[in-house]
Amino acid sequence: MKILITGIAGFVGSGLAKELLGLGHDIVGVDNLSNGRIQNVPVGADFVKGDCHDFDTLKVLFEKHSFQLVYHLAGQSSGEISFENPIYDLESNTTSTLHLINFCKLFSVPKMIYASTMSVYGDAEELPVSETYTNLIPKSFYAVGKLASENYLRINSNKNFQTVALRFFNIYGPGQNLENLKQGMVSIFLAQMIKSRTITIKGSGERFRDFIHIKDVIEALKALMFKDYKEDFKIYNICSGQPTKVKNLISLLESSSSFKIKHQYTDSTPGDQFGIYGSYSAFQRDFEWLPKVSFDDGIKDLVKLYEKD
Amino acid sequence: MKILITGIAGFVGSGLAKELLGLGHDIVGVDNLSNGRIQNVPVGADFVKGDCHDFDTLKVLFEKHSFQLVYHLAGQSSGEISFENPIYDLESNTTSTLHLINFCKLFSVPKMIYASTMSVYGDAEELPVSETYTNLIPKSFYAVGKLASENYLRINSNKNFQTVALRFFNIYGPGQNLENLKQGMVSIFLAQMIKSRTITIKGSGERFRDFIHIKDVIEALKALMFKDYKEDFKIYNICSGQPTKVKNLISLLESSSSFKIKHQYTDSTPGDQFGIYGSYSAFQRDFEWLPKVSFDDGIKDLVKLYEKD
Fold this sequence. Notes:
The structure is a homodimer. Chain A is of the alpha/beta class. Chain A folds into 2 domains: 212 residues, 3-Layer(aba) Sandwich (Rossmann fold), CATH 3.40.50; 73 residues, UDP-galactose 4-epimerase, domain 1 (Alpha-Beta Complex), CATH 3.90.25. Chain A is 39% helix and 19% strand. Chain A contains 10 helices and 13 strands. In chain A, strands 3-2-1-4-5-6-11 form a 7-stranded parallel sheet, with helices on both faces. A two-stranded parallel sheet of chain A has the order 7-10. The first copy, chain A, is globular. At the A-B interface, α4 and α5 of A face α4 and α5 of B.
């Protein structure tokens, strides 16, 4: 199958590309390398450097290749950075989606899978939050743009162009960019820990998150490849279903380390959600998917891996 | 008071500008004249031709003037056109809002009032719909971009930058552009009636809308000028509170005309809501505003006015 992966040099995109190449698929990838790294792009993928919000970049790709599936994973993925450059955030997360929708329809691509985020829920009042929760009050520019993209997909989906938006919760695991200290709670803490053996936590330790391992995320993305969709547009949570307090993540990181680690608390970042965790029962029901990596194992292995480097 | 009105050459912007000039305010206006007409800009307003999604246009304006209030009324306002050019729609309705927020904050403008739309409700299940309704499923690109703008305002508002988003229902009245046959239900029908004495209705006559006269809209916009806001960000419906079936609008137009008018029904346009009307009780409570022009009078006067021309 010929598949386009946007954001192929990123954490999720590169992991997915590697898997799909291993299964014998024909992978084309695009990435502007603003956060992704060229060395992440797996051998065998056809790579183009460019912006997904750039019409001409996409035009060349769609004219050259006949895609059967698009994974749109590219985008600015830090709530914090979205406050510093809201226009770039809107372009990379929303304009890109609009362009891709247009090209998919023009070139009869039957399916598109979109990386959305649990951030669209804001401070959800019903936990674990499910996809049917309606009072969406996004708290960051990032979340606003992702929600708009979901809405664009909903409006454009039909039996000839089926789309899925996955609301990813906090993804962690091998391959995260430890040089970007503004996105990925686990990778931020891990990077600090490795660099200075001190973790600085922006905000309360009582905040809680739903951490999902990259392996489980990739399995979820793969599950969407072949199965027929019952609905032309569908939103799914991709999460572990377990709340973990930030202070417990810190303890686990500290106990997993071979070194003595200190930590300190400071002010929170704007647009940060206090606590959220999700229900994955809809995705489980429709795609027979279950998260498999336990948080304890996932974190321990990750610390081991990075402390070895 | 020095006031910026974006979309000053448009239906609402020009009407507001005229009123505020009459009250002795200092009015600066910007418009790209894509839909608005230069002859609409009232004498006495300081006018700049330009796009509100263009950083440099806004930079010049904010550097030159010290605004105390911004009315952001510019934007592509047709659901139908938003399907033909979603990227332009996103830029004119959403990127423009982001830029204006940034400039207002940078130049310490204390208040911004935004023209949103009842389209953000989609097919609301509770009628009359109020601002607390949560299950927002926008059906057009236009509505997606407006909803995103509301969210950007919510995130950015604080005691030093207070904002209000007005969800306008179907505005009609003198000053509507009768040359644009893709926006404004009343003006579309009126234009057809005057040109060919035949009205073509896209979609069912059983659909219903909440029509609000331009005079009442301008009173609402004026009411927001001086009163202190209780909350830093607030959304209000601006509507009549009355549902009117499309077929009844047609009858009223026909009976108001001096000529024999025919009508015919055809297929609906994409993203059209079936039926909606709103509750204005929140705005009434906070700003002592009430719609005053009856629909019958409003339509009769309008037909008389345009048939005279």
